[in-house]
Design brief:
The chain has helices at residues 2-15, 20-35, 41-51, 58-72, 74-86, 93-105, 111-128, 133-144, 154-163, 167-173, 175-195, 210-216, 221-235, 241-259, 264-298, 300-311, 315-329, 335-352, 357-372, 379-387, 394-417, 420-428. α5 packs antiparallel against α12 (210-216) and α13 (221-235) packs antiparallel against α14 (241-259). The mean pLDDT is 80. The chain contains 22 helices and no strands. The protein starts with a helix and ends with a helix. It is mainly alpha-helical and 431 residues long.
Length: 431
Amino acid sequence: MIWTLLGGMTLATVMTGAVLGAALGLTGFAILYFFSGGATNLGVQAVWNTFNSYTLTAIPLFILLGEILVASGLARNVYRAMSPLFARLPGGLLHTNIAVCTLFGAVSGSSMAVAAAVGSVAYPELTRRGYDRNSVVGSLAGGGTLGLLIPPSLSLLIYGAFTETSIGKLFLAGIVPGLIAAAGFMVWITIHSLRRPELAPRNLEPAVGLGQALKGLVEIWPLLALIGAVLGSLFAGLATPTESAGMGVAAAIILGFAVGDLTLAGIGRALMSTVTTFAVIAMVFMGAVILAQSISVLGLPQQLLGQMAELGLSPLMVLLAIIVIYILLGMVFDGLSMMIMTLPIVFPLLTGLGYDPVWLGVLITLLIEIGMLTPPVGMNLFVLVGMSNNQVTLGDAARAALPYWLVLLGVIALMTLVPALATGLPSLVKL
């Protein structure tokens, strides 16, 4: 009865037009009021304790870092520097899209920010050279997802703050799966381009020797400096996630003025976009915290674990069911909202079955990435369709992104078979 009421109340409040955070919060307060003797103060206290956390202040800073990168135009120089390394490979500059997205993912925790920053440079350049528009958009949509997995990751940061899991370990855990996903994207581009060479014409690319190409990499120093400021300080134990994010923002502003196109107006737009984005996240976060408190008070995760034991469901079967649910939810919710909404139940359920919290954070981030490529709410698809001035339709973009969707699913399968791909690095470092 409680599970039915929980689902029904959440659905009812969403259908009234209430935003997701309000729907989750109202449902949580209703459960506390009717099933816990009117103890709604527990929900208020949970919100205060969560938002009074120092770790949570890193979220708006990482959002701002991504927005400043987009406004500064630093992607242009980095893209130009890395292009000669891949120009003569099957797939040509489509590989550059993935490589530059991987680098930008190491300084921006937002998938959409990476897709927008790299796409603003890559799409006009590649279409001018005769590359297939759909293939360009597909590679950028897939590459953009690396912004959520390669640390620093906004989703891993929120996951860590919500579940009280080490942010540093979560960031380390995302490195190997992120690089595997990037390599998988490049393998697909190579295979597809060998089958259909007309999608990525290589004869238009100037012949550049390896030595000259490596010399050109000097131009990526601003991005390497940012990576050092953000990840170097964090992994060296010199800074907390909030402090490293702050140093990243300061470094991005300095480099944006020095070697980029950043202006005071650009900083103003970045600040406004950051406030808007964080307000949405904070609202959903607040509602989820209240709901999590009500669920905890009722002991629903423990009841669910008991019922699964009675049914004889193995941990793997439960995990597969959760993966399917996330894929379906990814069709109607944006990734971060979906994660925050489901964590109150999914986290205690799967950790109760023996799954490692750090490994689980990477798994959920991969599932969010899949949602970023899943229509009709695939946010990366919308960003790039808009960037193409609707020269590529949403349907074409979704079809072009499907192979990258499958690669991410393959990384999930590989990580499930070999959990050490996510847990290996964190186990070697004390954070």
